[in-house]
């Protein structure tokens, strides 16, 4: 496995290297600048001879461009044709730099010794450049004539001739080194001069010259002025100079481009990327911009790789990437830079980068947010649907349909006092989402919240603990029945909500708290006079009486205790918490139930037999009555053992005649109310009878309390009553109120 892998890697590496070498190797071959025709020598010595010039007839375009390379010379020298004009360079821009012999005319003692009058028989396409060259004659008895032909368009056949010259004499040789007529004269040449003949003459054969040398000479030549500065010394030193530089212009044809192009075989601009331009002598060719090479050859103009070989007009800025194209190039900026590549390439400033990053982050965040929103929306929609489904389910489970049905029936019976069905949302808003701060009470059956309905109505909302689903119908029944209890001393049930898992009950809100709070708070208890206490007792008894006798079917509250008796600001009692209440079917007087209630208030008989009767409420009421009289709690484990159960403690105390010892300190005993107190104590005693049958019915209790609170009549029969109770107690069987209770009872009995 491993060797194979290594081999593959090696192979890939090798291929990559080969390819890259191949590329490198190909570059030079593609960059082949043609100079001469194929199979033609490109140079003589180190002087390049570009086409249309050439050194053999096959290698030239026209006869005029023949160059003779004299290999007999050392080093070999190229000559123009078979002339003595020595070529130093040929440029495709249309110029030839040549060295040309100078003309001379020498005299000794008035006798001409030697004269070379030179004719430069330039072909018509080669002309003397008249801007850089001048005709110069040097000598002290000299006149020089230059004549020839010059090219002029429109007169192609009959070339016009020109003749000009200058003369120089030396009367003094103290002149400066300028060619200004003394020892040297110069004249300009006409444009396009060719086939030029120079003639040198002397007026006096140097008979009268100041300079009386052995040999006096005159010289005449056309010269590139940039390469020739006259000096007095030249009068003698030019003797040794054979050749002087001259600049010639050349054209490829005599015609103008327009005409030349008409004969495609003769047209010299052979490269398809070349162009023609007119010249004073004819026309020449050039490579198009972006190309370089020899325009006179097919494919002679080659694309310039400006990126490798930047031209003077190279426009890419410093940080740009140059890409070569055919005949041109493009400039682009590096990825990290901004700009067009031609005018600027600026490194992106970090701020912009950060901006970009922020932009990207922003977009990403936006997209993410949208996704979240969409998901969230669908999720909440799903949740909402689920919730509403749940609400529906709960409503059904909680017997909502049955209730609705029943309510409809009730409606028919023109009962205005019906239950309102609240929605879960309504109650949630009312209690600020069942806020902890809104809790006003907490009991065995649930939690009570204070709530504000939309119409600013203050309500108490009771959230029950888990409800027995099997008793739904009964619950509905209770709700209906309770809603119909229109008793001023019963906390009014306003409505319910069945959309939650456990039904919520909505009651009128009672402002002043529970009776328990008032009794067991020292400060509050001090304001509870006996009258108030008895009034509360009477009202509570009235309610129970009503429930037991007036309501149909009768209702057993089952959980009467001071905590469940609320007080409004006028100390009006309001009985609440019917959570444990039971409706007693018409044909029964007692009900078999699970023992339910609050220790301390619980009927011992009911505890033992599990048979619920109205008398259970009577017992519980008795405890409340005792609580009202004594201000003590129904059950308090902090007290000594015999005092723990208030009911028993009360009974034993009354039996021992200690009633006034256990009365609440806040109850002021005086002549006026002793009877009242005693009467109440006796009533309580009766209610607390262990045997239910021996307890008075609630109607009786209520009547007695009401009567007592209205008129404070004398209580003469108290003693008789107490005797009765005593005897009853002796009959009592030990009760199932736990071990402690029975112990107490037996103690009591003993
Ligand atoms: C080119 O020049 C060399 C000498 O430099 C000569 O031997 C050769 O024959 C020439 N070839 C042509 C085609 O003129
Ligand atoms: C040609 O060679 C000569 C010396 O042999 C040198 O002086 C001259 O500059 C060279 N010309 C070119 C164009 O290379
Ligand atoms: C080459 O130069 C030599 C010596 O100057 C001369 O004798 C000969 O004729 C020249 N050849 C040509 C072809 O010009
Ligand atoms: C130069 O060549 C021409 C023909 O091309 C000929 O007529 C002439 O005599 C030659 N001159 C010399 C000096 O060889
Ligand atoms: C004249 O020129 C010829 C050839 O250029 C030369 O041989 C001769 O010596 C010269 N005569 C004088 C007097 O310089
Ligand atoms: C003479 O040479 C100069 C410099 O090379 C050039 O600018 C000019 O065009 C030439 N003149 C003619 C008539 O070709
Ligand atoms: C060049 O000039 C000479 C002398 O003036 C003359 O004989 C010859 O015909 C001229 N050549 C041309 C082509 O005009
Ligand atoms: C120059 O002077 C010599 C003698 O000194 C004389 O023979 C000759 O004729 C003179 N030449 C001229 C043109 O005057
Ligand atoms: C001619 O003189 C000019 C300055 O006057 C100088 O720049 C140039 O090099 C001189 N040329 C020669 C060939 O001496
Ligand atoms: C075109 O040029 C060629 C070669 O120079 C010549 O033979 C031919 O006659 C010319 N054709 C025309 C139409 O001028
Ligand atoms: C020039 O000709 C060559 C083929 O010789 C061709 O590949 C190229 O595209 C041509 N260029 C233009 C600008 O026509
Ligand atoms: C080369 O490209 C530049 C920029 O695109 C343009 O301005 C120019 O004209 C082009 N040059 C040629 C010869 O096409």
TrEMBL record:
| UniProt-listed CDD domains | EGF_CA (cd00054), STKc_IRAK (cd14066)
Which stretch is the leader sequence? Answer: 1-22
Give UniProt keywords alphabetically.
Answer: ATP-binding, Disulfide bond, EGF-like domain, Glycoprotein, Kinase, Membrane, Nucleotide-binding, Phosphoprotein, Repeat, Serine/threonine-protein kinase, Signal, Transferase, Transmembrane, Transmembrane helix
The UniProt record lists the Protein kinase domain at: 434-716
Q: Which reaction does it catalyse?
A: L-seryl-[protein] + ATP = O-phospho-L-seryl-[protein] + ADP + H(+); L-threonyl-[protein] + ATP = O-phospho-L-threonyl-[protein] + ADP + H(+)
**Listed GO CC annotations:** plasma membrane
InterPro entries named in the record: EGF, EGF-like_Ca-bd_dom, EGF-type_Asp/Asn_hydroxyl_site, EGF_Ca-bd_CS, Kinase-like_dom_sf, NELL2-like_EGF, Prot_kinase_dom, Protein_kinase_ATP_BS
Give the protein's function: Serine/threonine-protein kinase that may function as a signaling receptor of extracellular matrix component. Binding to pectin may have significance in the control of cell expansion, morphogenesis and development.
What is the protein name given in its UniProt record? ATP binding protein
């Amino acid at each position: 496995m491993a060797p194979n892998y290594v081999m593959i890697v090696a192979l890939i590496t090798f291929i990559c290297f080969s390819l890259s070498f191949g590329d490198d190797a190909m570059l030079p071959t593609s960059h082949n600048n043609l100079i001469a025709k194929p199979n033609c020598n490109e140079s003589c010595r180190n002087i390049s001879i570009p086409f249309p010039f050439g050194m053999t007839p096959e290698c030239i375009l026209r006869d005029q461009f023949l160059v003779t390379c004299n290999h007999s010379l050392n080093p070999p020298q190229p000559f123009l044709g078979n002339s003595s004009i020595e070529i130093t360079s040929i440029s495709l821009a249309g110029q030839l730099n040549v060295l040309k012999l100078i003309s001379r005319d020498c005299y000794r003692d008035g006798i001409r010794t030697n004269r070379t009058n030179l004719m430069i028989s330039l072909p018509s396409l080669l002309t003397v450049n008249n801007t850089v060259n001048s005709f110069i004659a040097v000598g002290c008895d000299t006149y020089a004539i230059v004549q020839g032909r010059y090219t002029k368009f429109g007169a192609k056949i009959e070339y016009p001739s020109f003749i000009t010259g200058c003369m120089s004499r030396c009367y003094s040789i103290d002149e400066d080194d300028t060619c200004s007529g003394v020892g040297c004269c110069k004249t300009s040449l006409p444009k396009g001069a060719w086939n030029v003949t120079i003639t040198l003459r002397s007026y006096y054969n140097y008979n009268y010259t100041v300079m009386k040398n052995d040999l006096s000479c005159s010289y005449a030549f056309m010269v590139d002025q940039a390469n020739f500065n006259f000096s007095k010394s030249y009068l003698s030193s030019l003797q040794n100079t054979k050749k002087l530089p001259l600049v010639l212009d050349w054209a490829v044809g005599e015609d103008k481009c327009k005409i030349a192009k008409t004969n495609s075989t003769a047209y010299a601009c052979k490269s398809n990327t070349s162009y023609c331009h007119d010249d004073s002598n004819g026309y020449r060719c050039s490579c198009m911009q972006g190309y370089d090479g020899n325009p006179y050859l097919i494919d002679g103009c080659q694309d310039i790789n400006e990126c490798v070989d930047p031209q003077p007009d190279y426009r890419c800025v410093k940080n740009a990437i140059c890409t070569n194209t055919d005949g041109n190039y493009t400039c682009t900026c590096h990825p990290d830079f901004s700009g067009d590549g031609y005018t600027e390439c600026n490194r992106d400033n970090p701020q912009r980068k950060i901006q970009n990053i922020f932009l990207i982050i922003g977009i990403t965040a936006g997209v993410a947010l949208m996704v979240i929103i969409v998901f969230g929306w669908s999720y909440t929609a799903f949740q909402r649907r689920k919730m509403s489904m749940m609400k529906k389910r709960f409503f059904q489970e909680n017997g909502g349909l049955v209730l609705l049905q029943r309510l409809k029936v009730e409606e028919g019976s023109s009962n205005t006092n019906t239950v309102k069905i609240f929605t879960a949302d309504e109650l949630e808003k009312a209690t600020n989402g069942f806020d902890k701060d809104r809790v006003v009470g907490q009991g065995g059956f649930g939690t009570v919240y204070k709530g504000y309905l939309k119409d600013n109505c203050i309500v108490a909302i009771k959230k029950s603990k888990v409800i027995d689903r099997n008793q739904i119908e009964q619950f509905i029944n209770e709700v209906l029945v309770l809603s119909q209890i229109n008793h001023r001393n019963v906390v009014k049930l306003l409505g319910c909500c069945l959309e939650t898992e456990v039904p919520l009950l909505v009651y009128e809100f009672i402002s002043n708290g529970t009776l328990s709070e008032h009794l067991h708070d020292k400060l509050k208890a001090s304001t509870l006079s006996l009258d108030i206490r008895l009034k509360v007792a009477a009202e509570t008894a009235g309610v129970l009486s009503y429930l037991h006798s007036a309501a149909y079917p009768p209702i057993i509250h089952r959980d009467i205790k001071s905590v469940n008796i609320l007080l409004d600001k006028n100390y009006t009692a309001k009985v609440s918490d019917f959570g444990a209440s039971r409706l007693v079917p018409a044909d029964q007087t007692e009900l078999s139930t699970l023992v339910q209630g609050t220790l301390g208030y619980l009927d011992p008989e009911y505890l033992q037999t599990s048979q619920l009767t109205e008398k259970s409420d009577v017992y519980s009421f008795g405890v409340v009555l005792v609580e009202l009289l004594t201000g003590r709690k129904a059950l308090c484990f902090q007290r000594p053992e015999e005092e723990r159960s208030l009911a028993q403690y009360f009974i034993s105390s009354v039996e021992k005649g200690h009633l006034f010892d256990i009365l609440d300190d806040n109850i002021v005993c005086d002549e006026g109310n002793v009877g009242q107190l005693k009467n109440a104590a006796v009533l309580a005693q009766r209610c607390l009878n262990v045997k239910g049958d021996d307890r008075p019915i609630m109607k009786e209790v209520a009547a007695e309390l009401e009567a007592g609170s209205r008129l404070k009549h004398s209580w003469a029969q108290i003693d008789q009553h107490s005797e009765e109770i005593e005897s009853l107690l002796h009959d009592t069987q030990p009760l199932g109120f736990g071990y402690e209770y029975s112990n107490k009872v037996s103690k009591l009995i003993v």
